Each structure stands twice: as structure tokens, then as C-alpha cells.
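hey so i finaly got around to running the thing on Glucose-6-phosphate isomerase from Halanaerobium praevalens. pasting the sequence first so u can double check i didnt mess up the copy paste, my clipboard has been acting weird all day
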Amino acid sequence: MSADQKVQSETDLRVKLDINNVFAEMIGQKHGLQRKELFDFKDEAVKAHQNILAAAEAGEMGFMELPHNQQEIVAELKQTAEELKDKFDNFVVLGIGGSALGNIAVQTAINDPYYNLFAEARDGYPRLFVSDNVDPEGVKALLAKLDPKKTLFNVISKSGSTAETMSQFLLARKFIAEAVGEDRVGEHFIATTSKDSGYLIEIAEREGMKKFFIPDNVGGRFSVLTPVGLLSAAMTGVDIEQLLAGAAYMDKICRENDFWQNPALVNALIQYLAYKKGKVMSVMMPYSDRLSDLADWYRQLWAESLGKEVDRQGNKVNLGPTPIKALGATDQHSQAQLYMEGPFDKIITFLEVENFAEELEIPKAYADLDGLGYLGDHNFAELINTEKWATELALNKRQRMNQTVKVPKVNEFTLGQLFYFFEFQTAVAGELFNINAFNQPGVELGKNYTYGIFGRSGYQAKKDEFENSAQKNEDLIL
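ok and heres what it spat out for the C-alpha cells, dont ask me to read them lol
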């Protein structure tokens, strides 16, 4: 492919942002933004952008490096997948939060919706299971369905002390050891962890496990384009080079200094101004089953990054927009009533697929029935996007702020763009809100209480807090 052809191909597949419906001329003066507001705050957004780029230069924005510095890792991941895919029927990810949601989003977006059910859908690759909770019924049910001799586990934990993941690992290790013997346990596990510290790297070396590493400067919710997400993608036949190529293309766009040429920068400011205007709920509503789990991934990214008690100066601010997942057209019949007529506290981001991979006609029948016959000679892609356009117009009529991310088609290249777009937008939003978008002290507090209650060494104070906390009133348990 020539350079001109490549540029044309990238341009054809560029993800775009339509922000018409956030402005007053579309939804009215009371709830819409004025363009002047964006101009007035543009310098703040540009400064936030400069801060992000400076932090990247200093090596503090690890997610921005990922599209460019993983050639050797990608080659190793692909080789590993090629060597192992015929040896195992099942590939099981043990991870939680950022170690699971991205994996699921990639699988749902790229592979056949019934990938696990039919061998022809897998084309020689193993089934994928992501075990991301410690509900005993779910964990036991999964292991009961698997042949241990034909199952490969990927344990993902940067620290190797994540209680949920490591408890599952201990059970999975027993499951494998009883089937193949202690000396062969390592053949059935791959560890994805920190290179230089933590318990999991020590375990992996003891057991002789294959290892992949999470960069120290990449947090869990930003890790989908590291081996955290790329290994399971490669093990299910996803083109991980195209995922990273899409992210690299969006990185180039996000580095653009011209405010109006940088959609992630513009959208970070829109989300910030919407929040200031009382739109404290951020709804993501894909009109595509393939992008449904991307909205789950976004929920963690947005909530954990921006929900903070204190700002960078230590002032108590208790801020953060609440992310909500919806699915079009499904949730037109469940959530849309609230969005249309409830509080004016939401900004809705639609994901619209312009070209679906499949064409499916609606058969023509019952022409004499006015309420049914009109559907014939149309197709399902027309229907789902018409449903989106109709919902968009209805929201406009009710003065509800909404915008659309347009996806030319769902493939690895556009999915890589989407991951990077929302990650960069989140980083800029953190700057605008004047908070640290890359820590999660609230999550850590809950973890520490769990460690204490379970008796982990060094957490006795947390156990004491739990045991001395206020007792519940039995009269209030109804």
C-alpha cells in the first residue's frame, strides 16, 4: 500500500465527533452551551493539553506511549498465540476492573457474537472466558465446565496481591495441579504483571510461567492496549497490530495543538462545561451490540479517573461526573423515558456505526396492515440508525444535551481509535477539573479494609476499624 493509499484508508476510517446538539441553537438557551463559552474556556483547555503533552515527554503518560513502543511485545504476543492456540480449548482471563473490561470490550467488538458457542466462529482459536468476580456460584460453575488439561489461564495483577484475582488463581492452580501434577502447573498459566515487583512475578518465576509485563506508568483502567488486553485479543484471532495502528492514528489527532482540530480536547471541555452546567451524568449509548461493552469499559475509565474527593491542592471538592451505560435501541424501551422527561442532569454520547458489517433485509409482508407493512423493503441497519436519529431529534426537542461519536465501521483500527480517544479525553478532563485522574484512593481504601478483615499482615488497624465500627440496628433490617 502506498503512502497516499494509507492516508486515504485512515481518513475513510477516522472516528469523528458531532457536537451540534450540545449548543443552544439546537436545544435552546437554557440547557445548551453557547459557542462563546467554548471560546472563553479554550485557553484553559489548551493549557491542559500542553500539560498532558509535557507529562508525556516526562514519561508520566504511559498510555500515550503504547501505540508506538510495543513492536517486540506484539511479535511475542502473536508468536505465543500461534504456539498455544492449538494446545488449549479454553483461555481464561483472571482479572478485575481494568484487567477485565477492556478484554471483554475487544472480544465483543471484533469477534463473532457467538464466538464461544461454535467452532466455526472461532476459526481454530480457543474459547475465551473472563472471570472478573468472586461470586462462588459463578466461579465454581465455570471451572465445572472446563477440561483442566485443555485450559490456559491468564492471571492479571500488577501487584500480585489483588484479593479477587489471586483467590481465583489459588483455586485455578489447585484445579490444574490435581489434573496434571504440581510440576506442570506453569504450563497452564501466563502471568501478566509488573516486571520488577509484586508477588505474581515471584510466583511466575517459581512455577515457570510465561510472563508479560504491564508498564509501571500505565494504570489498570488505561491498560487495554498493553498485554493486559492484547494477549486475550491475540489468543482469539484479533489483529492487535491494527488495534495499535488505530490508537497511533488517534494519538496523532490528539496531539494537534489547534483546539478545533482536536476532538478529544474539544470534548473534554464540553464534558467539563456540561458538568458545570449541572449535567453531572455522562451517558454513553452505543447503537451497536458490538460496542455495548465499550460503554462498560468507559464507565470505569470515567468514574475511577474523575470521581475524586480532593483537588491537586488537597482541597475537598467531592466532584466527578457519573457515567451511565445504555444500549440503543434496547434502552429506548427502558431508560429513554428518564432521559426525555426526567432531570436536566445528563449529557448523552451516542456511538453511531455508519456501515455495519452485515446487510439484513426486513422481509415485506402484511402490506394491508398500516402498522406493519411499512417495514418491508427496508433493512436492519437502516432501522437501528433511524432509531438513533429519532431519539436524537426527540432529545433536541426536549432540550437535552447530546452528541454523537461516528464510527465508520467497527474493526480493530476504529476500536483502537475509540480506546485512545476516550483515554486522552479523560486525561484532559482531569486537568480541567484540577484533580489527579490517575489515582484511585477510594478504591484502595476498600481494598485495605478487605485485607484487614481477612487477616493480611500489616493491615491490623483496618481490621480493628471494622470490628469497632458502629453496629447495625436489627430493627432497621426489615
